[in-house]
Amino acid sequence: MNYREFVESIKKGQIAPLYLFYGEERFLLLDAVKRLKARLLVPEFEDMNYIVIERENPEEYVEAIIENCETLPFFSNYKIVVVKNEEEQLSKIGDKELKRLTDYFKNMVLGNTSLVVVVVSGEKIDSRKKLYKFMEKEAAVVEFKKLTPEEAVNYAGYFLKKHGKKAAKKDVEYLVKNIGTDLYSIVNELEKVIAYSEGETLDLEEAREVLSVTLQQNVFHLVNAIGMKKEKEAYRALYALLSKGEVPLIILTMIARQIRLIAKLKSLEGKAFDKKSIASYLGIPFFAVDDIVRQSKLFTREDLYKAYKECLRCDIALKSGTEPSFALENLIKKLCKQ
Amino acid sequence: MYQSLYRKYRPKSFSEVVGQDHIVRTLRNQIKMGRIGHAYLFTGTRGTGKTSVAKIFAKAVNCLNPKDGEPCNSCEVCQAINTGTTMDVLEIDAASNNSVNDVRELRESVIYSPSLTKYKVYIIDEVHMLSTGAFNALLKTLEEPPRHVIFILATTEPEKLPDTILSRCQRFDFKKIPTKQIAQNLERICRDSGIQIEENGIKAIALYGNGSMRDAISLLEQCASYKEGLITYEDVCEILGVANEEMLFSLLDHIYEKDAVASLQQLDKILSYGIDLGNFLRSFTYMLRDMVIYKTGGDELIEILYGDQETIKAKSQKYSIGFLTNALEKFTALQREIRYAVSPVTLLELTILRLIRPEISYDMGSLIARIEELEEKINKGYVATKEESPKTHEKDELEKKVNAAKEAKEEREEIDLGRVWLEVKGILKKERMMLYTFLEKGVPHLKDGKIVVEYSEEDALLVEQLGRPENKDFIEAVVEKVVKKRIPIEFALKKSEEDLLIKQVKEFFGDGIDIEII
C-alpha cells in the first residue's frame, strides 16, 4: 500500500488491526497516524486511547506492548497503540521474545475490532528479518515513498491554496526545485512564505526574502554555471559553497573535472557518436550529457587549453597560501571571461 | 547594580529589533494569523538578534493582551518572562547540556503543561553542540511535540545540524545588520545614556562591529569608559587599533589618482597606528574584492559582499573595474609573498608604486589597466590634437632617439667587449690559470658602464670564488691594463627562478622529462 491507497482505505472504513509504516517521507507517515487518530478516536478521550510505546531497552518492548494492548479502550470504540521502531529496536530482541510478540499479534490483535496497532519503522526495512516476514504476511504494510517532483509540486500548490494564496504553476515549480521534495521542508518553507507575504498571490521576489534553502549550495550548480559562463551565478554559487564550509580544493577539483569533461567531449567533435557511448566515454550519467554538450559549444579548443592552465595556476595559489575565496573567484573570472 | 549597555538595550519588542525585518514581519504575521509553528531554527552570525527575537517571540505568543503581534511588556506573563521568573520559558545552553541524557530529561519535562502561560517555550542556544544521540532524541520530540510546546533552536553553525533536524524546523536566517542601522541604534543609545561621541566615531564603531550589534555596543561601552567628555574619531581608532575603512579608501583614492607621495604618506599614517600588516592587507583585499564583485554583478550579487553593502556600493562608482581587478590581483599575490619577505613594508610600498606607475610593471593586468585608461581618455575626447604639441613632441622624441643611439654607439666605441675579453683572458691564461678557467664559463655583458659576467646556476661556486676581493681586484687590474681605464666588474648568477624550479623538479623526478613553466 502507499499513502494514497491507505487514505482511500480508511475513508472506506477498512481499518486493519495491525499496520506497519515505514519509508522516507516522514511527513506523510505522521500524517497517516494523525488520520487514523482523527478517524477512530474521540477527541475528548484521545490521550487515554492513544498510546506510544518507546523504550530504551529492547527487552522491555514485548512486555510493554502486550500490557498496553490488554487494556480496553476508554469511552471510545477504538484504541491506537503506536510502537516506535525507528531504530530497529524490535530486531534486537531475542527469538523467544519475538515469537511471543508475533504470537500475541496473531492471536489477540488480528481480529480484535477495538484495537489498532501501528508499528512505525525507519526509512527502510530489511524484509529478510523474521518480524518483517511476519508483518508482510499478516499486517497492512504502508510504504511512504519520497515524492516525485510532480507530486511535490501538486502538494505545494494545494498547500498554498488551502491557506489562501494563489500561485502560478511555474512559481510553485521553482519553489519545489529549490526546496526539494521532502514534505517537511516544503511545509516549513511555505509556512514562512505564507506568513511573510501579505498579498493574495505568491510573489517569488518576496518569497526569496524568507526562503532558506537554495539550490546554489550544490557544487554541480557551480560547475554548470561556469560551463555556461554565467559569471554572476557562479560567484553566488561559490559564496554559498564556501560559507557552507566546502573545502576549496574540492571545489577546484570539481571545476577542473568539468573542464576536463568538456575537453574530452571536444575531442569527439566531428565524429558520430550517440549519447549513450558519449556517456560511457566520459564516465558520466546519461542525463548529464546534454549539459556538457551545450557547454562545450561555448569553449574553443584554445579556451580549454587556457582553462587548464588557469586551473593549475589556481591550484598553485591555493597551495601556497592565497586566500581561497580570492583564488577561486579569480579562476571563475578567468574561465567565464574567455 | 551596573548593567552592561548591551543587556540594558536588548530589544524588548519586535519593533525594537534592528535589521531583521523579514523575520520580524513573518513572525508577527504568524502570531496574528494564529499559525504558530512548533519548531523554529534561528541561524545567523553572533550579535544578529537570534536570542533576543526568540525571547520576544516567547512573550508575544503568551502575552495576555498582545497588540498587532507585539507583546505588551506590561502584563503578568510578559513581566515574568522579562525577569526570568517563569519556568514556562526555558533557555537552555546546548553547549553545556549536550548529552543524550540532557535531551531525555528535556523530553520528560515537555509533556507537562505550562503553569502560567499558554505555550511552553524552549529556547535551545548553540544547538549545534548537541551530540548525535542527543540530536536523535530531540528529533523525536520535534516530530510530534505536545500542542503546548514551542521549540526555538538557535545556532551560528546550521551546517552542523543533521538534515533531519533542519527539515523539521522553520528556519530563519538572520542577516548581518547593515552598518547604517547599527550606527542609528548606537546613536540612540548614546543619546539615551548621555555618551558624547563624534558621529564619525559612531560610524567607525558600527563598521568594526561587522554586522553584530552586540559587538558594536560592547565597543561603544569600551570607548565610553575610555574617557570622560567627548570621544573623538581619533580616540575610537586608537582604541580599536584598526585601519578604519575611511583610511583604506583614502589610500585607494591616492593610488587611483596616481599620487605616489600622498599614497606613501597615507600608508605610513595607517601603519603608524600600529596596525598589523597582515590585518591591513586582509581588510584591503577584502575591500577590493567586494568592489570587483559589485562592479561585476551589481545589485544581483550584493548579498555575497563581505563588507558593508552601502559603502561598497557608493565607493565602487569611483573606480574602473580594470584598476580594481589589477589592484586585487597585485595585493592577493602580495599577501602570499609577504610572508617570506625580509622587509614586508618595502614590498608593500613597491606594490603600491607599481600600481601607480604601470610603466614599471609589465604583466597583463597592468597593461589592461593602462589600455582602459586610454580608452576612457578617448571616450572623454582627450585626444591630443595633431597640430599643437605633437610636432615639437615628435622632434623631441626624435632627438632623444638620436641621442640614445649616439650614446649607445659611444659606449660601444669605448670598449669592444668581445675583443677586450679575449685579451683579458689571454693575459689571465698566462698569469693565473685558475681564474682563466673560471672566466671561461661566464658570459660578459656591458651594463651601466660595468662589466657583468653572468653564470648559470650550477656555477654558483665560481661566482663566489671570483667575487673574492683578491680575485676581483686582480681581474679588474688586468682589464684596466687592456682598456687603459678602470671598469668595475661584477659576477652574477643568471637569475631565473624558472631554471631553479626546473632544476628542482628534475632532481626530484629524474631527467628525461619535458618541463614547461606556465
UniProtKB/TrEMBL annotation, chain A:
Molecular function GO labels: DNA binding; DNA-directed DNA polymerase activity
GO terms, biological process: DNA-templated DNA replication
SUPFAM superfamilies linked: P-loop containing nucleoside triphosphate hydrolases (SSF52540), post-AAA+ oligomerization domain-like (SSF48019)
GO cellular component terms, A-Z: DNA polymerase III complex
Alphabetical UniProt keywords: DNA replication, DNA-directed DNA polymerase, Nucleotidyltransferase, Transferase
Sequence ranges assigned to domain DNA polymerase III delta subunit-like C-terminal in this UniProt record: 216-334
Superkingdom assignment: Bacteria
Pfam family, one: DNA_pol3_delta
Coiled-coil positions: none
Enzyme class, spelled out: transferase
UniProt keyword Transmembrane helix, yes or no: no
Gene3D superfamilies associated with the record: 1.10.8.60, 1.20.272.10, P-loop containing nucleotide triphosphate hydrolases (3.40.50.300)
Protein family: Belongs to the DNA polymerase HolA subunit family.
PANTHER family membership: DNA POLYMERASE III SUBUNIT DELTA (PTHR34388:SF1)
Protein name: DNA polymerase III subunit delta
Organism of provenance: Caldanaerobacter subterraneus
Gene: holA
From TrEMBL, chain B:
EC number(s) from the headed UniProt entry: 2.7.7.7
Catalysed conversion reaction: DNA(n) + a 2'-deoxyribonucleoside 5'-triphosphate = DNA(n+1) + diphosphate
Domain of life (superkingdom): Bacteria
Coiled-coil regions, chain positions: none
Gene3D superfamilies: 1.10.8.60, 1.20.272.10, P-loop containing nucleotide triphosphate hydrolases
AAA+ ATPase domain: residues covered: 36-178
Annotated Gene Ontology cellular component terms: DNA polymerase III complex
Pfam families registered for this protein in UniProt: DNA_pol3_delta2 (PF13177), DNA_pol3_gamma3 (PF12169), DNAX_ATPase_lid (PF22608)
Matching InterPro entries: AAA+_ATPase, DNA_pol3_clamp-load_cplx_C, DNA_pol_III_gamma-3, DNA_pol_III_sug/sutau_N, DNA_Rep/Repair_Clamp_Loader, HLD_clamp_pol_III_gamma_tau, P-loop_NTPase
Keyword annotations from UniProtKB, A to Z: ATP-binding, DNA replication, DNA-directed DNA polymerase, Metal-binding, Nucleotide-binding, Nucleotidyltransferase, Transferase, Zinc
Keyword Membrane (UniProt): no
MF terms (GO), sorted A to Z: ATP binding; DNA binding; DNA-directed DNA polymerase activity; metal ion binding
Family per record: Belongs to the DnaX/STICHEL family.
PANTHER family on file: PROTEIN STICHEL-LIKE 2, REPLICATION FACTOR C / DNA POLYMERASE III GAMMA-TAU SUBUNIT
Protein name: DNA-directed DNA polymerase
Organism of this sequence: Caldanaerobacter subterraneus
